[in-house]
Specification:
70% helix
Length: 61
């Protein structure tokens, strides 16, 4: 759930905190590895391959 979609003020604050924590963690990992993390579809594919070497499409067949 996004910050704008949260129905309560408490939910909005939680969503905002999660988004900030995620961004902070991404920056930390990117600094440690020396390269930007892939985003969106590319990241999904990278994560899928890293788990067992197969693409997501291959796993669904």
């Amino acid at each position: 759930m996004g910050v704008k979609e949260a129905p309560t003020a408490k939910g909005k604050a939680a969503a905002k905190g999660l988004k900030q924590a995620t961004a902070k963690e991404e920056r930390k990992v990117e600094a440690k590895t020396g390269r930007d993390l892939k985003k969106g579809e590319k990241r999904f594919e990278e994560r899928s391959r890293s788990s067992d070497g197969k693409s997501a499409g291959t796993k669904q067949k």
